[in-house]
Design brief:
The structure is a single chain. The chain is about 0% helix and about 45% strand. With about 120 residues, the chain is mainly β. The strands form 2 sheets. Strands 2, 4, 5, 6 and 8 form a 5-stranded antiparallel β-sheet that branches. It has a 4-stranded antiparallel β-sheet with strand order 1-9-3-7, with no helix packed on it. The protein starts with a strand and ends in a 7-residue tail after the last strand.
Length: about 120
């Protein structure tokens, strides 16, 4: 079993838009290991962009629910500054998105990977 699994990085969404970095999908009540959602413990998201007002947004839904709820305050991404966050995935659905502000980013470098490491995340 691989310890780290890189994911395809999200493409530049343009101005005032969002793109999904990771989404475990809807998790039925009786199947918490659906598509490895509970096998991976952490998701790491890295971004470097020249866009102002960009944020990393983490949403969660309980098993069997379709209602996404904000887990924590959006993480601000400072323009032209490397930003990285680790997310300790929760039981149920985890959705992590990158949301841009006004103005289309001309620099958009991103990386996303899943990990089995159970350490506390940021």
């Amino acid at each position: 079993m691989e310890a780290v699994r890189p994911l395809t990085p999200p493409l530049n969404p343009g101005a005032s838009s969002s793109v999904v970095a990771y989404d475990s999908g809807t998790i039925p009540l009786n199947q918490l290991d659906n598509k490895g959602a509970r096998l991976h413990q952490r998701c790491t998201v890295c971004i470097f962009t020249d866009s102002t007002n960009t944020v990393i947004r983490w949403e969660w839904a309980a098993p069997g629910s379709s209602t996404l709820r904000l887990v924590q305050a959006d993480v601000a991404v400072t323009a032209s500054t490397f930003t990285q966050r680790d997310f300790r995935l929760q039981p149920g659905r985890n959705k992590i998105s990158l949301v841009t502000g006004a103005g289309t980013p001309t620099v958009w470098d991103t990386a996303v990977e899943l990990s089995f490491d159970r350490a506390l995340a940021q």
